[in-house]
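Example 4.3 (complexes with small molecules)
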Amino acid sequence: MNIAIVGSGLVGRVIALNLLKDGGHNITLFDKDTKEGVTSAGFTAAGMLAPFAELETAESIIFEYGKRSIELWRHLLREVGLFDGFQKRGTIITAHTQDVPELKHFITTLKRKIPEANEIEFMDSSKLEEIEPELAIHNNSFYIEKEGQVDSQRFIAFSTTYLDSIPNIIWRENTTVQKIEPNRVFIGDEVEEFDWVFDSRGLGAKEYFKDLRGVRGEVIWVEAKDVNISRPTRLMHPRYKIYIVPRENGCEGIELEYCKDCKIAQTSGAKRYIIGASEIESEDMSDISVRSTLELLSALFTVHPNFGEARVVNSETNCRPAFRDNLPRIENSKGLTRINGLYRHGYLLAPAVVEKALNEGIRKI
Ligand SMILES: Cc1cc2nc3c(=O)[nH]c(=O)nc-3n(C[C@H](O)[C@H](O)[C@H](O)COP(=O)(O)OP(=O)(O)OC[C@H]3O[C@@H](n4cnc5c(N)ncnc54)[C@H](O)[C@@H]3O)c2cc1C
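Answer. The structure with flavin-adenine dinucleotide bound is encoded below.
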């Protein structure tokens, strides 16, 4: 089939990788920006795969999709040659003593929503010392074993290189698509015909989805020589909830002025952490605000005092595409599939949501 994928951010890439596995298709990827994908929400994301922790504010369908996606990610990453971009070593959730009721309420909410949450293990500082020694200053934590992360920035970088190397993929970068219909893509005054079209424009699909909104999120990248945390860690706090996502293999030890994968300048020998994320009902994509910077970094400093000497190497702002119910939406008709609304769960959901969309759409005919 002659297929168009409009929007080569996170969802578009996952669609392309799945269609390649099916074989026999010619695929055209359209994006309004460059194929590097650095302006997509998929690049800004921390890549946390947290089906349990996300349940605090999400429905159990997110949990089911999340479990399936965790199974699928390993294969997708292998496909693009990213063999160390997946980690499933669990998440630590902690809180300061005065915020322990908040933490307990959080865990109770998860347990009420799904029986599997009963496996979540309480850890006092001596237990935490066994798995994350540098966090042992915290006496009230929980360990969610079956969560993980994808190295999102490297997924975007590796998938660019991989998809670009496939002869039956054409990448039409810097090409804004105005409108999409079954079998048709509208670019300026031109209309192009395809056997099937995928609409994976994220927030760029507002032209069609009138109830789509953007939810602003800001993250900060720091590099710390004297902090060694190996698992994604969440701090529960009545106002400043943060997560800290270590990039285990990230750019560590690469002696380049600029890392070739993520194009960001390096401070040699330090480990990188992504600190996130604000959640603001706004579609403003401008740089991180002073307020968010202060909130994220002050909360960070309280998790591990050595973060005080970390270096802030980057910040990113983007908007999560979301519907009113914050749930993903798949629309299938002959010759057209639309996938959108992955909100703050893009990495957690994309492989499973795309699998479902393909099975109920193009693979069914
Ligand atoms: C700060 C932040 C942190 C996050 N952290 C996590 C996390 O830890 N875990 C998790 O699971 N999810 C996370 N997410 C959510 C995740 O990033 C999104 O759900 C996901 O990227 C949505 O994927 P998408 O493909 O729909 O959109 P995008 O990744 O934004 O891709 C859309 C693409 O479409 C292109 N496009 C748009 N309009 C047009 C047009 N008219 N013509 C051509 N191309 C167009 C864009 O250029 C872009 O490349 C986070 C998001 C943010 C903002």
